[in-house]
Amino acid sequence: MPTYRDEVVVLRTHKLGEADRILTLLSRRNGKIRAVAKGVRRTSSKFGSRLEPFMVADVQLAKGRNLDIVQQAESLGSYGADIVANYDVYTTASAMVETADRLNEAEATPQQYLLLVGGLRSLARGEHPERSVLDSYLLRAMALSGWAPGLTECARCGTVGDHDYFLPQLGGVICSTCAPAGSPRVARDTVDMLRALMAGEWETIDAAPGRTTAAASGLVAAYAQFHLERGIRSLPHLESYR
Does 149 share its domain with 214? Predict the structure, then answer.
């Protein structure tokens, strides 16, 4: 039975039988992987705690007909305990792994893996507000999937400038000429915040006032869910998105 090694993030798990689990993994080199971890739910399991959601591990897998089989697992990032200790951090991380799980195989690239690992690490360490970590992750994940929002030029006509409208269904900021009648205006500092989130300019992001952060979050959520074609189930449970 051929085997291979890869670095993975555990996205979700499902019970199988009395002692096994089915894992959905985002890997660094092999895209998304579905695998069985046999005996992982037994207290005697050597690597059960390393294969919980939000954990990052170096795994050896054996190729299977329908599901691969986890043979070994070594921890690379034990983020789960710190994440589940705080409800808002947990729901933020849940939204991130849910988004990663929506990726199709062509989109599950090494860059997506590294982006998710960086986001989970930041959440576990409390480096930035969880809402901003999620917003930055969602924008970048969309961009890596080919859905980068237009933030410096009109998404319809390409005119460069500071535009006053942002419409998810049209691809980003829209100039006054292209904006449909009745479109709501967006404050300039909100668009600046979106640009900072996309670029990872954390000094700017962390210093932004709450109203700007909240306004940008609403636009990011609308944009991501429009392009994912269905809602992110974890978002309504996150206090900052209610």
Answer: yes
